[in-house]
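In line with agreed milestones, the collection of sequences with tokenised folds has grown. A representative record is reproduced below.
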Amino acid sequence: MDTEMTGKAQSTYRMKATASLGNFTVQGEGWTLVTEAGTMRGQALQRVWKRIFWRRILLALGLLGLLLYGLPSVRHLEVLIPMGVCPAATMSLLRDNFTGVLRPWARPEVLTCTSWGAPIIWDGTFDPDVAQQKAGQKNLTIGLTVFAIGRYLEKYLARFLETAEQHFMVGQRVVYYVFTERPAAVPRVALGPGRRLRVQRVARERRWQDVCMGRMRTLHAALGGQLGREASFVFCMDVDQRFSGAFGPEALAESVAQLHAWHYHWPRRLLPFERDARSAAALAPGEGDFYYHAAVFGGNVAALRELTAHCARGLRRDRERGLEARWHDESHLNKFFWLHKPAKVLSPEFCWSPEIGRRAEIRRPRLLWAPKEYQLLRD
């Protein structure tokens, strides 16, 4: 009888426990309590957070796609990406052979130095009068090379040279080197005292990509010849742009790289370096400092001989392997400057694209890109 009562009591207890704690169940022999309602709430929250997470991922990818390939107005959002700040300890050490002591603190809104201590030249960080004076004391001749091949000659060369006479190294001795397959078609431009124009014939390449890639080989040969003998420093520039402001001795250094106007705000992982590991221009993830524009680079003759030799060698090796870097000679230029850091970096003010629009940090553009008409100009 006691056994029967005990069994009934246990049964009654289980029923009461189930009734009073309706959200709990009993499993097996033990009293494992599972909160069904709590579990459902947890699963619901997890689903909500997953939806939020993936919506943010899709939004970020969408904005990145628009930034790269879509609406130009979306590009204005990239100004919200911080460029970084030059450390105070580095600021005090920044000086230059042509500008004396620099004033990086005058431009706190932009990055004014590199991690290896090279200055990034922005308007307001140097004294142009001091730069002119120091360059004059050194009795320099500065070379400016430009390739005008095919229709690029008629479309751009005259304006490039005319505006260079107004703004490029004014007051200094300058020698222009024009490389073209049609020397007789080079326009006559009035040149100031101490400024000369030399024209050198080059072969016409079958493809425009080969023109871009072949210029490193041509420049290397020229730097080893007359150009290298008569110039102390040389700048190499694209012809489809025009000077719009003073491009003076503040830009001179042993080796000079130009920040690309379309990429100077981007984080390193998004920069368009060559990523095909088979290419001589390849940079691994995590490599690369900035993305440099091949439309402007320069330095002394020895440094440029090294740069052009490196790029020509890499281009030749890629061609032998049936490869072509994504951005041709520019990809190899960026590989060189990763391995051999430039002594000076020019801000995007020195080579700006009007297509980007106005930026508060771009105070005084020195060079402006011409509108790109590739379908008309490239065979």
